[in-house]
Specification:
The protein is an alpha/beta fold. The chain has a single domain, classed as 3-Layer(aba) Sandwich (Rossmann fold). The chain is 39% helix and 22% strand. The strands form 2 sheets. Strands 5-4-3-6-7-9-8 form a 7-stranded mixed sheet. A two-stranded antiparallel sheet has the order 1-2. Helix 5 links the parallel strand 6 and strand 7. The protein is globular, with a radius of gyration of 19 Å. The protein starts with 10 loop residues before the first strand and ends in a 5-residue tail after the last strand. 39% of the residues are buried. The structure holds S-adenosylmethionine. S-adenosylmethionine (SAM) binds next to helix 1 and strand 4.
């Protein structure tokens, strides 16, 4: 899922953007927490979260590195900084996270300042991804690591059994994002993350993909994420001009909540979604 605009409209497809981000994060929560645990970030380490969104990942990362750790969470959108500050006030890790407005492409930190850099679902939005990754390397201490998380490097499955329609919806989404992404789609940019990291001089890159699989009965978060974020927002009216009449009708029959054919109302419904960690060690590290 993408923000599409640097300063996204407050409500697109009916849901305020911070809520969309939170649902996306919560939908993946158990698998993300397991994948973060697998990273074995050192207890008491200092990290940087670039493009922190609503701050849920910063919160989970702070839990993973324990009470002596510290995270600087930055976002170039002041509204997201505000969202994160508000969220963290209600958590036990607030004093271990500093939230600031900042741009991942031009960090204000000194060289070799952090033990790890985390950047989730952000890099594909940045045109100078190679320069940004070099900036991440600059602030990384020897032995540190850079974790780039990207969702849906593998196309997702939200309409099992409707392969052609789902492909058309994915094609239309790519076309919709064309204005922001330019000649190389977000999907292509995500898939090229490894190549981009190599171009930035990173080596020893590990690729780890986790699959989020849900089936009926769906938990409330999965139900809300799929209906309101995937079906109503991502595949909502914004895609109408990019689909044939027949595909739009089929999409509406399967995806509208009140439709008698609503796919989410079926007792055999399941979905699959993935996210990928691209993990690199700092150049010159041990
Ligand atoms: C799709 S959201 C992901 C947010 C969060 N990391 C997550 O996974 O939920 C992308 C975020 O990156 C931020 N962002 C985009 N480009 C950025 C940049 N160059 N520097 C800092 N933040 C950036 C946006 O403002 C937005 O909050």
């Amino acid at each position: 899922m993408s923000e599409h605009h640097t300063h996204a409209p407050a409500a697109e497809g009916g849901l305020p953007y911070p809520m969309t981000l939170e649902l996306m994060n919560r939908f993946q929560e158990p698998e993300v927490l397991a994948a973060i645990a697998d990273l074995q970030l050192p207890e008491g380490s200092h990290g940087l979260d670039v493009g922190c969104g609503v701050g849920l990942y910063a919160q989970w990362l702070a839990d993973a590195i324990g009470p002596d750790g510290h995270i600087l969470a930055i976002d170039h959108n002041p509204e997201r900084v505000q969202d994160t500050v508000q969220r963290l006030q209600r958590t036990s890790v607030a004093d271990r996270i500093t939230v600031q407005e900042g741009n991942g492409t031009d960090l204000t930190l000194p060289d070799k300042h952090v033990d790890w850099v985390w950047c989730a679902d952000v890099l594909h939005h940045i045109d100078d991804a190679v320069g940004t990754l070099r900036e991440f390397q600059r602030v990384l201490r020897p032995g540190g690591c850079i974790v780039i998380k990207e969702s849906q490097v593998l196309p997702s499955l939200f309409l099992p059994g409707y392969l052609d329609l789902e492909r058309e919806l994915q094609r239309a989404e790519i076309q919709f994002q064309h204005a922001e992404a330019g000649p190389r789609s977000f999907q292509e940019r995500r898939q090229r993350t490894c190549q981009t990291m190599c171009e930035a001089g990173l080596s020893h890159i590990t690729v780890r993909t986790s699959v989020v699989q849900r089936q009926v009965p769906l938990d409330p978060v999965a139900q809300q994420y799929i209906q309101q974020v995937i079906f109503d927002r991502n595949w909502g009216p914004r895609l109408r001009p990019l689909l044939s009449d027949a595909d739009w009708e089929r999409r509406s029959a399967l995806c509208e909540p009140d439709s008698p054919e609503s796919i989410l109302a079926r007792s055999d419904y399941y979905c699959m979604y993935s996210f990928t960690f691209f993990i690199a060690r700092a150049v010159g590290s041990s």
